[in-house]
Amino acid sequence: MPLIKRMQHFAVEVADSDVSIAWYREVLGFKLTERHAAFEVDKIPVELTFMRLNAVHHELVIVHNPAKKYTPKPALPEDDLVGPPMFHHFAFECDSREDWAQLEAELRARGDVRFVRGPVLHSWVNPRGDGSWGENEAFYILDPDGHRIEIFCNLATIDPDGTHRNGEGVRMEGTKTAEL
Ligand SMILES: [Fe+2]
Q1: What SS3 class is residue 54?
Q2: With respect to CATH, is domain 1-67 assigned 1.10.1040.10?
Q3: How far is the CA of 72 from the centre of ligand 1 (A)?
Q4: Calpha distance 75→164 (Å, rounded)
Q5: From CA 162, how far away is CA 14, in angstroms rounded?
Q6: How many angstroms is it from 37 CA to the middle of ligand 1?
Q7: Coil, strand, or helix at residue 103?
Q8: What is the tens place of the pLDDT at every residue in 3-31?
Q9: Ligand 1 centroid – CA 156 distance (Å)
Q10: d(Cα 134, Cα 161) in Å, to the nearest integer?
Q11: Is-cis flag, bond preceding 119, omega within 30?
Q12: Whole-model pTM above 0.90?
């Protein structure tokens, strides 16, 4: 078994901490745990804001470097054709399909959230699927800096024999896993 238990928080660089903190609070429901100025601690030259969904200190860290001149990010990852490697998207999971569908409806009703894909079922097994992989249902939005965020439910799990099991617990016969 891997010694690492799980992937946990994500630190995202932003052009304006105030704007991003407000957005993650109001749009996605994050809570502000604590916010710190650049150089508040020796050797930390960036603003750091720790945000959480529930009881863990942070799932998201908002990072801003006051010394950096920020330029706009292309709207879509596939339009980012020159430059250093960037992250493509990060994802937040809902506990149930009902929660996921409710959140999508609420975000669309706001009218100010930039949707870039979905809702879509990532499956080549399910007839409703888009031909891709994971069995999760997802939609994709952009945060104020254009960072692409996936919100999903029902990601497949992997049975000991490598067969994928979907969010309803059904084995997806014919699927296989590269490494057990
Ligand atoms: Fe994803």
Answers
A1: coil
A2: no
A3: 23
A4: 33
A5: 39
A6: 32
A7: helix
A8: 999 999 999 999 999 999 999 999 999 99
A9: 12
A10: 16
A11: yes
A12: yes
Can you tell me which residue has the tokens 């992937």? Answer: 7
C-alpha to C-alpha distance for 156 and 135, rounded to whole angstroms? 5
The length of the chain is: 180
Q: How far is the CA of 8 from the centre of ligand 1 (A)?
A: 15
C-alpha 166 to ligand 1 mean position (Å) = 16
SS (H, E, C) the chain: CCCCCCCCCEEEECCCHHHHHHHHHHCCCCEEEEEECCCCCCCCCCEEEEEECCCCCCCEEEEECCCCCCCCCCCCHHHCCCCCCCCCCEEEECCCHHHHHHHHHHHHHHCCCEEEEEEEECCCCCCCCCCCCCCCEEEEEECCCCCEEEEEECCCEECCCCCEECCCCCEECCCCCCCC
DSSP-assigned letter for residue 78: G
Instruction: State pLDDT tens for residues 61-76.
Output: 999 999 999 998 887 8
The fold of 86-180 is 2,3-Dihydroxybiphenyl 1,2-Dioxygenase; domain 1 (3.10.180)
Residue range(s) occupied by CATH 3.10.180.10 in the chain: 1-67, 86-180
